[in-house]
């Protein structure tokens, strides 16, 4: 029970910071916040992504490229240009690695993206990643009711990239299209997206990339947007 709770908590917290901070804030500037809240969310992104922390600036740069070249051969991760999920993941990893190394070496690069040298260096360091892996493993060692549950540990270790994979692979491969006129292959994978907090409305999102709300039809549900709306009401962020 404790293990399943831990799994679900880690899944949704990591997903929330990916969609809220890395995607909607860093990549698309859908809302504004002061430096205190930006640093708070930056740190929390590091804490919950843990061993699979993705540098916001490198994520933002790669994601903007995805929108500019969606499903063409210049798209850093289009399922149309990869034979299978392994080559797809490898290509995305190489693109991210290349960008994150450039960003670590140059703090002033892309100054419109949130930067925090200390957390970027910590999050990317192997010792810190190993610390998080040990922490996840220890929790399983203590609380898992059987060894079968250990099969879930890799999901914790690679949580960020797994979420990225689900969105970028299925979101550009399987589902329906509200906006059939778009030249790319973006899809809305789930009619009610409780799994990825609205990220699986890729077709809607590619239609209006800077619109904070990803749901366009009455039955679609964008949990990420609902939380953003709450934070806006509480004056933590200001929706643009
Ligand atoms: Zn997309
Ligand atoms: Zn986007």
Structural class category: mainly alpha
- Order of strands across the biggest sheet? 1-2
Low-confidence region ranges: none
Shape: globular
Overall mean confidence score, pLDDT: 95
Bound molecules: zinc ion
Query: Into which percent range does the helicity of residues fall?
Result: 55-70%
User: How many beta-strand elements?
Assistant: 2
Topology order in helix (H) and strand (E) letters: HEHHHHHHHHHE
**Overall structural domain count:** 1
Biggest sheet: strands, sense, closure?
A: 2 strands, antiparallel
Note the gap between the termini. Answer: 41 Å
Mind telling me the C-alpha Rg? 18 Å
Individual helix count? 10
- The fraction of residues assigned to DSSP E strands is under 5%
Describe the protein's architecture and organization.
- The chain is mainly α and 240 residues long.
- It has one domain (2-239).
- The protein has 10 helices and 2 strands.
- The chain has helices at residues 2-27, 35-49, 56-68, 85-105, 117-124, 126-143, 153-157, 159-170, 202-207, 223-233, and strands at 31-32, 238-239.
- A two-stranded antiparallel ribbon has the order 1-2.
- Helix 1 (2-27) packs across helix 3 (56-68) and helix 3 (56-68) packs across helix 4 (85-105).
- The longest helix is centred in the first third of the chain and has 26 residues, at 2-27.
- The chain is globular and about 50 Å long.
- The chain starts with a helix and ends with a strand.
- The model has no long low-confidence stretch (mean pLDDT 95).
- The structure holds zinc ion (2 copies).
- The site of one zinc ion (ZN) has 7 residues, from helix 1 and helix 3.
